[in-house]
Write a structure and sequence with these properties.
By secondary structure, the protein is of the alpha/beta class. It contains 10 helices and 31 strands. An 8-stranded parallel beta barrel has the order 4-5-6-7-8-9-10-13. Strands 17-23-22-19-20 form a 5-stranded mixed β-sheet, with no helix packed on it. Helix 3 links the parallel strand 5 and strand 6. The chain is globular and about 65 Å long.
């Protein structure tokens, strides 16, 4: 009955148009924030979505789409292409789709036979997919590895990408194309090759997430690219496997819930206009045995929904499902948490769901602003503050429904001043700083200059991310003695390391306001990445 009810409603949805303007997605002329969730069909207990012939599973897909939409999501993200019957269901549901096309990231990108097969696959998919306006982005590759790109060459990578991008633009005009780059291993890739910046990013407390913090780490990637395109985060999440390390697995259900919301907040503050947390349901197949749920395998336990046994086809939601449902009712895009504003006038940007009808902004229990909401979607306004010198302010945002019931609260911590002032500074000098061929030993010299209004609030973290597979390289934690220091850290440069991201950072504090000061440098070995790098 559910499948039938979805299919008969197809005709009631008007044709929609997606555009990219001013680093935003626009749907039918209005700013559109992508509240997606990572989703795979054919990944339930006993199934492997990438082995054999995958069933359409339309009844199960219809169930999933229904509960996804009821939870406040407006989009799903996939790693491989949907069939036409599956696309019909997505179209009927009213959800949008960021659709993967599973180009193999481990093949020879310059091999003309492989290029031809890729073009044929894209053509076969677009022959029917171009008829569905639920598709708002194509992702044509997932997490290409640094060593593999070095072997096949940056030129071959760029050539294949441009070929497929041009083909999709021709066969499905107006739909953005990108890849889902893993931020930790693909930070050196110039994403301006694509229509949007799309990154998988995890808060595993290592490398740049340790030195810069997740917010500034991802915002830094946008800045490295020149801030020319919209940013969507195509994966982030917390596994609740029994064992793990560095936040990769071993998290409690409560840690998963709080972690996802903290990540969402950081990524909003990084400037993301689209979110695709990882992911809807556990993938038992990821441990190599689709019929048994390995308690210690982190990759099997990222789901917002879990399954009790191999006969359980519908599953049940974990606490993170409800936590995210409530959090997404009202998203605060601006002011940004942990941001510094040199003005008495703050921009307010919000994205609300259909239940929100009123928003109040408070400071120390006094109402500074009341906004009346008439429809779901993007809201813009401004907030006037009367500041006296430098002030740390904790602003409380309260979201109410039409019955004046509180549905969500969130606080935003900012530092504000009507006049400019000197901030603490951190800079690094990296040796070798031009070419990794110059030495087998690296040095990162960190200079910290404090301002008397601020206090150091952590040890110095230093990282030499060598991009060796999923290994992030050596790191150092350095206790600091004074307010202004020069610290030098040394690292080994592996012979098979083709690119390094050297970074350092430390937390500083002013009253309740805490943020990180940091710096990063990307260094290549030779000129292998001249066609692909920043």
């Amino acid at each position: 009955m559910l499948l039938a009810s979805l299919l008969v409603t197809t005709s009631v949805f008007a044709v929609s148009k997606i555009e990219i303007k001013s680093n935003w997605y626009y749907l039918n002329g209005e700013k559109y924030f992508i509240k997606a969730i990572g989703y795979e069909i054919g990944a339930r207990p006993g199934q492997d979505p990438y082995q054999g012939n995958r069933s359409d599973d339309l009844d199960l897909l219809a169930f999933d789409l229904k509960v996804i939409k009821e939870a406040g999501y407006n989009c799903i993200r996939t790693w491989s292409q949907f069939s036409e019957p599956q696309l019909k269901l997505v179209q009927a549901s009213g959800l949008k789709l960021i659709m993967g096309i599973d180009v193999n990231p481990e093949k020879e990108y310059g091999d003309q036979t492989f290029v031809r097969l890729c073009k044929e696959k894209v053509h076969q998919v677009l022959a029917y997919a171009r008829n569905y306006d639920c598709i708002i982005t194509y992702l044509i590759l997932n997490e290409p590895q640094t060593d593999h790109i070095h072997v096949v060459s940056g030129k071959a990578f760029v050539g294949l990408m441009r070929t497929l991008i041009d083909q999709i633009h021709l066969e499905h005009p107006g739909i953005p194309v990108s890849i889902s780059t893993n931020a930790m291993i693909g930070d050196y890739i110039d994403e301006n090759l694509f229509d949007v910046y799309a990154y998988n990013c995890y808060d595993h407390s290592e490398a740049q997430t340790a030195t810069m913090g997740m917010r500034d780490y991802i915002r830094g990637l946008v800045e490295l690219n020149g801030s020319k395109k919209p940013l969507i985060t195509t994966e982030f999440g917390y596994s609740v496997s029994h064992k793990g390390f560095g936040r990769y697995g071993g998290n409690t259900l409560e840690e998963q819930s709080k972690g996802l919301i903290a990540n969402y907040r950081d990524l909003l503050d990084a400037g993301a206009v689209g979110m695709c947390p990882f992911y809807y349901a556990d993938g038992w197949w990821k441990g190599g045995d689709a019929f048994n749920h390995n308690a210690d395998q982190p990759e099997e336990w990222f789901g917002f929904w879990g399954y009790s046994d191999e006969k359980d086809k519908y599953g049940s939601p974990r606490p993170v499902w409800f936590a995210m449902r409530d959090y997404m009712k009202g998203l605060i895009l601006s002011p940004k948490n942990k941001a510094i504003y040199f003005s008495d006038t703050l921009p307010i940007e919000l994205y609300t769901d259909k239940d929100v009808r009123k928003i109040q902004v408070k400071y120390r229990d006094n109402v500074l602003k009341t906004l009346r909401i008439v429809k779901e979607g993007y809201v813009a306004d401004q907030l006037i503050l009367n500041t006296q010198g430098i002030e740390d302010r904790e602003l409380s945002f309260e979201f109410y429904d039409k019955a004046n019931r509180l549905v969500k609260t969130e606080s935003i911590n900012i530092l504000v001043s009507s006049t400019a002032f000197d901030l603490p500074k951190l800079s690094i000098e990296v040796t070798p700083g031009i070419d990794l061929n110059e030495s087998k030993l690296a040095s990162i010299k960190t200079r910290i200059t404090m301002n008397g209004n601020f206090k150091l609030n952590s040890d110095l973290r230093v990282s030499y991310n060598t991009h060796l597979g999923w290994e992030v390289g050596e790191q150092a934690t350095v206790p600091l003695k004074g307010t202004s220091e020069v610290v030098e850290s040394f690292f080994h440069i592996p012979d098979n390391c083709w690119v390094v991201n050297a970074s350092a950072g430390v937390s500083v504090r002013y009253g309740k306001f805490e943020f990180r000061i940091h710096d990063q440098k990307i260094i290549y070995r030779g000129d292998w990445a001249k066609e692909i790098g920043h």
